[in-house]
Specification:
- The structure holds two protein chains of two kinds.
- By secondary structure, chain A is mostly beta strands.
- Chain A contains no helices and eleven strands.
- In chain A, strand 4 and strand 5 form a beta hairpin.
- By secondary structure, chain B is an all-beta fold.
- Helices cover about 0% and strands about 55% of the residues of chain B.
- Chain B is built from no helices and eleven strands.
- Classes of the chains: A mainly beta, B mainly beta.
Chain lengths: ~120, ~120
């Protein structure tokens, strides 16, 4: 099973709302990723979790708050977003050795289409 | 800083044609290269991962080649079908270790349309 699931599929939120995106995988992967993708552009990395610890934050605004409660789950908490944050948010996962020496194949979920009004 | 370029940006072919998508990268010190397919509004589907020690990787009608020394990879699609219509992305990971582990650098993609 090489499936990464994401919920919800679509989300519309106002600029004062608080919402969360959820990602789950059961492949035993210890690296999980959040990407943001705007229309007609490639995905842009936001965060990387390695063994449930945040290892990369690509200078993402604090209105995006990631969380990795266990090795299978990854959340992205959203608060006070702006209309320009509307995008497709993609989660991915991959194997990772503890020494983080070899980059493995990344598997992506179907994404959450976020619209901020 | 690694830069990845894909040519052409868009390609329209009749069904049945064999076609080649190109990907080039500036830093040849890569561990692997991954090809993805993305349908409109959907997530990325991993098609092939080719290791730096490999020259080719095949899956069904797809064949990916890698020439590290020249910084190039090609994705060959045989006997194209309308269902192959999608955006194809190539990506290379940051070099091992350090603070950039796991970061993929993507090309801008090739939009493929196969018409009946």
């Amino acid at each position: 099973d090489t499936e990464v699931t994401q919920t919800p599929k679509h989300l519309v939120m106002g600029m004062t709302n608080k919402k969360s995106l959820k990602c789950e995988q059961h492949m035993g992967h210890r690296a999980m990723y959040w990407y943001k993708q705007k229309a007609k552009k490639p995905p842009e990395l936001m965060f990387v979790y390695s063994y449930e610890k945040l290892s990369i934050n690509e200078s993402v605004p604090s209105r995006f708050s990631p969380e990795c409660p266990n090795s299978s789950l990854l959340n992205l908490h959203l608060h006070a977003l702006q209309p320009e944050d509307s995008a497709l948010y993609l989660c991915a996962s991959s194997h990772q050795g503890p020494e983080r020496l070899v980059p493995y194949e990344q598997y992506f979920g179907p994404g959450t289409r976020l619209t901020v009004t | 800083k690694q830069e990845v370029t894909q040519i052409p940006a868009a390609l329209s072919v009749p069904e049945g044609e064999n076609l080649v998508l190109n990907c080039s990268f500036t830093d040849s010190a890569i561990y692997n290269l991954q090809w993805f397919r993305q349908d409109p509004g959907k997530g990325l589907t991993s098609l092939l991962l080719i290791q730096s020690s490999q020259r080719e990787q095949t899956s069904g009608r797809l064949n990916a080649s890698l020439d590290k020394s020249s910084g190039r990879s090609t994705l060959y699609i045989a006997a194209s079908q309308p269902g192959d219509s999608a955006t194809y992305l190539c990506a290379v990971p940051s070099n091992a270790g350090g603070t950039s582990y796991g970061k993929l650098t993507f090309g801008q993609g090739t939009i493929l349309t196969v018409h009946p």
